[in-house]
Amino acid sequence: MREKQILPVVIVALTGALVAVIALWTLDRVDSSQLDRPQNDVSEMSSPTDVIEWKLVTTWPKGLPGLGAAPENFARRVNEASGGRLRIKVFGAGEIVPAFEVFDAVSRGVAEAGHGAAYYWKGKIPAAVFYTAVPFGMTAQEANGWLHYGGGLPLWRELYAPFGVIPYAGGSTGVQMAGWFNKRLNNRADLAGLKMRIPGLAGEVFDAAGGSAVRIAGGEVYTSMQTGVIDAVEWVGPYNDRTLGLMEVGEYYYYPGWHEPGAMLETIINAEALAALPEDLQAIVRIAARATNTDMLDDFTANNSESLQILLRDFDTQVLPLPDDVMDALYEQSQVAIQALVDADPMAKKIAASYFTFAEKVRAYHEISERAYLNGRDRLLPPVEVTAE
């Protein structure tokens, strides 16, 4: 009888304990869910007043692989590393300003950041060409060495300082192609009167060699070739050229890219906008720029190689070397153009002294390293055939 009286009490006690355990477990799950939330969930981490928003304008068509991907990747890295405290929205050429007005937009504060090629500002800053490409100059690997360990970057900062703009290396395409031509080149005489889209110092060289350089933004090159406005175009290489469909409007694909042996691009930041950031966000901007610079060359190395195979296999592209006579003419005029630039502009003279001093040193080393290895490898491996008969 006593056992029957105790049993209900025990059941009630056990039930109460179970309810308490469930309540505590539920409370613990709620607390844990707060800890397990992704730390980059901007909507829950930052109030609107915590978020800094920047605009980044580019010289590239929106969505262009390679060139156009670099600023998008830069913005993504900054957004992620800052936990959403610094958000950068990327605008393609023409969305806020035309391609060739990107530098001015960043200088004036219309946009806090930009991505493009320094030689587009040659009319405003003649020495800027050293920070994209020098005809017959350094490769991407050599130019990055000069920038970051050979004194090139401080000179670049000095060059842009009067405009309130801070530059960072913004990626490289590696050695480019010489371009697409609708006329076969046999010797330097074939350059006479040839209309070619080719910017920067190389445009001056092409003019002096007998051609006619035309300045056209990337979004216009296909139509310009298709309609005969130009006879030839250099853009980048197989990766981006295939994206623009240039194999459909150009008959001959020439190499090597004498004009851009290691084209550097730039990420530029408005100096006041950068200074207004907390120190940790400034560091994030610097690190993201450096990461983007390295990543872009990796991207082009992989995708140029793949795209070349597609051009050869699917489009029967005629890939040809520039004749030695043409290369000689372009080199001769390159030396004239560089000397004229140095004589006319004090900053160009200062930068050129640093650039060519470094170039000679690295060339000597690469003679017994890069070139010696490639020559040795080619002697042992089966030959590579990519040129047309």
Task: Give me some keywords for this one.
389 residues; alpha/beta; D-Maltodextrin-Binding Protein, domain 2; six-stranded mixed β-sheet; 14 helices; 11 strands; disordered N terminus
Mean of the pLDDT scores? 89
Work out the radius of gyration: 28 Å
The order of strands across the largest sheet is: 7-6-8-5-9-11
Q: Look at the structure and give the CATH class of the domain at 46-173 and 263-300.
A: Alpha Beta
Q: What is the fold-level CATH name, i.e. the topology of the domain at 46-173 and 263-300?
A: D-Maltodextrin-Binding Protein, domain 2
Number of helical stretches of at least 4 residues: 14
- Unreliably modeled segments: 1-48
Strand content: 5-15%
* SSE order: HHEHEHEHHEEEHEHEHEEHHEHHH
Strand-pairing-aware structural class:
alpha/beta
The fourth-level CATH homologous superfamily of the domain at 46-173 and 263-300 is: Bacterial extracellular solute-binding protein, family 7
Biggest sheet descriptor = 6 strands, mixed
Overall spatial form: globular
CATH architecture of the domain at 46-173 and 263-300: 3-Layer(aba) Sandwich
The helix fraction, in percent, is 40-55%
Distance between the termini: 110 Å
